[in-house]
Amino acid sequence: MSRKNQPAWTPPAEYATLLPAITGNAFNGWGEAGPRRPRQIFWLKESGGHPFGRLLEAVKQRFVSVPAYRDVYALADRGPGKLPPPAETRRVASADSWTRQVKDFALNRPGTRPEGYPGVGSEAELVGIARIRPEWVYEGFECRLPNLIVVGNAMDHARLSRVPSSAEDPEGQLEVCDQYNRGARVVNWLAHWIRAQGYEAKPHAGPWVGSLNLLPAAISCGFGELGKHGSLINREYGSSFRLAAVETDLPLLADAPDAFGADDFCAGCQVCANECPPDAISREKVLVRGTVKWAVDFDRCIPYFNETYGCGICLAVCPWSTPGRAPKLAERFARRAREKHAAGVSA
Ligand code: SF4
Ligand code: SF4
Fold first, then answer.
1. What are residue 151's DSSP bridge partners?
2. Is the pTM of this model over 0.85?
């Protein structure tokens, strides 16, 4: 049922005691005209002394207080642990050959999904290559390696649609956890394999934010466009997928971005904005660190995100996420672009 015209959800009063003097949006750079690197605000591993440390601790405590979530990110479900050093002798191959090999590895690694779920038989549905850019690296961190292999794990939409989660019904958020674990397994194994070829490799697996913002990296390597809900829209899976990555110096060929009309679609769609309980999704683009783009109001989203163990409503309700719909929408927008182009040429 649509929430349109209903009053916005407001956080419990005690929530204010967890927040620092600076707002999350100011910390993220809303309204800033100049570019700068992003600041790691959420899921900071070492939050002591961090302005949002008390909030992060509260989010973590709430999450682990539910038995279904407590052990969900166990090491055993996330692939091999400690990485070996790179082999002393480097295997030599062309960038084209390495690119084919890592994509094959990521997409065809045997998976554990039961029948009826996306990705049956493999551990990933999407893979792309990007050159790491400094503006993707969080302040205070560095990335020494030049290339990033980005992996996407499709979520089962029926299960995702059980959000918002509660302690009594954790199913929607458990789907998110399962996909982060699939992503972790494939990037951990891939990093092991790359090191066995004699190259450096460092895995990045959610849900915790690491040194890199994976969202612009995924856009750069062709996973899709930024949606109004602040997440990606992919031409196959809509917004129903999660990201993981491997940073490496293995020679690789970068992929191109894929713009297929999602940004235009968002301009005329308000579904996520209407369904977001705390009204956190901006209906207009916002200036953030020198770029005008779709953005989510952190200060409104995070309290509800915390109360519902990860929310996810905006991903579930996005029309592109409905199984089978994204390819049809992408084709329709591509046809429109071709017709517009043809009309321009014959005019
Ligand atoms: S629900 Fe509509 S506006 Fe929101 S991200 Fe999806 S397509 Fe864009
Ligand atoms: S995660 Fe939930 S609260 Fe946050 S923007 Fe999406 S719908 Fe709104």
1. 127, 244
2. yes
Distance (angstroms) between ligand 2 centre and the Cα of 313 equals: 6
In a domain, 222, yes or no: yes
Q: Whose CA is nearest to atom 7 of ligand 1?
A: 266
Pick the closest to residue 293 from 35, 23, 64, 24 (CA basis).
Answer: 35
Report if residue 71 sits inside a domain: yes
| Ligand lying closest to the C-alpha of residue 296 | 2
In a domain, residue 26? The reply is no
Work out how many domains the chain is built from and give that number.
1
Ligand 1 centroid to 234 CA: how many Å? Answer: 12
Characterize 182-206 residue by residue with b for buried, 16 or more Cβ atoms within 10 angstroms of its Cβ, and e for exposed: bbbbbbbbbbbbbbebebbbbbbbb
Using the mean position of ligand 1's atoms as its centre, give its distance from the Cα of residue 155 in Å: 17
pLDDT tens digits, the chain, 347 residues: what are they?
467 778 999 998 988 899 899 999 999 999 999 999 999 887 666 666 788 888 888 888 999 999 999 988 887 789 888 899 999 999 999 999 999 999 999 998 887 666 666 655 688 999 999 999 999 999 989 999 999 999 999 999 999 999 999 999 999 999 999 999 999 999 999 999 999 999 999 999 998 888 999 999 999 999 999 999 999 999 999 999 999 999 999 999 999 999 999 999 999 999 999 999 999 999 999 999 999 999 999 999 999 999 999 999 999 999 999 999 999 999 998 888 788 778 876 65
Closest CA to 246 of 30, 101, 94: 101
Question: Could you give the CA distance from residue 127 to residue 231 in angstroms, rounded to a whole number?
Answer: 17
Does residue 292 belong to any structural domain of this protein? yes
75: β partners:
none
Domain range for 228 is 31-346
